[in-house]
Design brief:
The protein is of the alpha+beta class. It is built from 10 helices and 21 strands. It has 2 domains: 88 residues, Pdz3 Domain (Roll); 198 residues, Alpha-Beta Complex (2-enoyl-CoA Hydratase, Chain A, domain 1). The longest helix has 17 residues. The N terminus is likely disordered.
Length: 405
């Protein structure tokens, strides 16, 4: 964010600004029809009877102290944004977050799968507190330069970064098409430097091939806008090649747009089948059902692991409960809550957890995960499960074995 430096102004103006902004945050949030990592959105307006007088009084006390003692200049916009962020973080919910107006466009671009950048999926590796590359996008500048799954980003344009910078690092890597960005990558004990030219990236995460015994294999790493259509097109392409069974690889798929997951489930389930139950804070229950006759009628196996989360768990849970697929691999992550993205008049936003979901059998997913029908671990010889060949992939080989029977 380009911060606008301002000098002190009178205390009453600061109080009015804080009061107006916080009141607007609570009472005037409108729905914005996009998704986040993960999760669904429903059109609605939200209102609150919250009495903000205590909050205003507390903020005013700190403002008084700052005005009286603080040596430096005061940037009001930073103070207001910091107050909002702290207020939201106080919920203790890892999926609820404030999104500044400067970050909202990037957030929307990421959600729809269109952005300018170098083409990488990133995750925060909590064990090492580093930013790990989940995978480069096919044909992207990152892939062409030789960046690999499992690499760690340790510097961007000469600035060191850690896992704590995950929420801001994406904006540092992005920029105008044709401009350059320098990344320092840690790969094992090596440190490698790359200078990449940013491009317009259209994410097309659905890939597939025909394996032995006419087994189709489809994998994708997120549920972006259009993923369901891409999945259908890839299946139809494989069907023309004579596949008789299908493996859907959802390992390391962290989720995305809920409706895309439900549409893919619709391709494989009977019309009218319950796919998902959504329950809000008041106990109101919404039932999502399959709307069409299935287009995929063959044995199916879904591959999962500990990074299979959110919309991936919705799809896995629906197919498992409806006995349309068997799950092979390891237990999923356990993110069974849905977020809405709300936008404010000033362009900033709030991603907020609003519902919990249950599978068709009313199985709880949140903080529990989905147990596979066949638990299969990868061998100790696999050093990087994000970059593994088929022959070494015991989970994939187990799925192939089951489909041969």
């Amino acid at each position: 964010m380009e911060e606008k430096k301002r000098y002190r102004i009178y205390r009453v103006i600061m109080l009015v600004a804080l009061t107006a902004f916080m009141t607007f945050l609570i009472t005037s949030i409108g729905m914005y029809q996009y998704f986040t990592n993960g999760d669904g959105i429903r059109n609605s307006m939200m209102k609150s009877d919250y009495d903000s007088s205590d909050l205003e009084s507390t903020l005013d006390k700190y403002k008084t102290i700052i005005d009286k003692y603080y040596l430096g200049d005061v940037d009001e916009e930073k103070l207001i944004e910091g107050a909002i962020k702290g207020y939201i973080e106080g919920l203790g919910d890892p999926y609820t977050e404030y999104i500044s107006k400067e970050d909202m466009q990037d957030y929307m671009d990421d959600t729809t799968g269109n952005f300018v950048g170098v083409g990488i999926y990133m995750v925060k590796d909590t064990e090492s507190n580093k930013i790990m590359i989940l995978s480069p996008i096919k044909g992207s500048p990152a892939e062409k330069a030789g960046i690999k799954p499992g690499d760690y980003i340790i510097e961007v344009n000469g600035e060191k970064c850690t896992g704590d910078d995950y929420s801001t690092i994406s904006n540092k890597i992005k920029g105008e098409a044709g401009s350059k960005v320098k990344l320092k990558i840690q790969r094992g004990t090596e440190e490698l430097e790359f200078e990449l030219t940013r491009e317009n990236i259209k994410v097309n995460p659905v890939e597939g091939e025909v394996l032995e015994n006419n087994i189709g294999y489809i994998e994708f790493s997120s549920f972006d806008e259009g993923t369901a259509d891409d999945f259908k097109a890839k299946y139809e392409e494989l069907a023309k090649q004579g596949i008789t069974s299908l493996i859907i690889d959802l390992r390391n798929n962290g989720g995305g747009i809920v409706d895309e997951a439900l549409q893919i489930a619709d391709y494989m389930t009977d019309k009218g089948s319950t796919l998902l139950y959504e329950i809000d804070k008041n106990g109101k229950e919404t039932e999502e059902k399959s709307e069409n006759d299935p287009i995929i009628n063959m044995p199916i196996i879904v591959l999962t692991n500990g990074n299979t989360a959110s919309s991936s768990e919705i799809l896995s849970g629906a197919l498992k409960d409806l006995e349309k697929a068997k799950i092979v691999g390891t237990k999923t992550y356990g993110k069974g809550v849905i977020q809405q993205v709300l936008t404010l008049g000033d362009g900033s936003g709030l991603k907020i957890t609003t519902e919990e979901y249950l599978t068709p059998n009313r199985t709880k997913i949140n903080k529990v995960g989905i147990e596979p029908d066949e638990t299969v671990e990868l061998p100790d010889t696999v050093k990087n499960e994000l970059d593994i060949n088929h022959e070494e992939d015991t989970q994939l080989q187990k799925a192939i074995e089951l489909l041969k029977k």
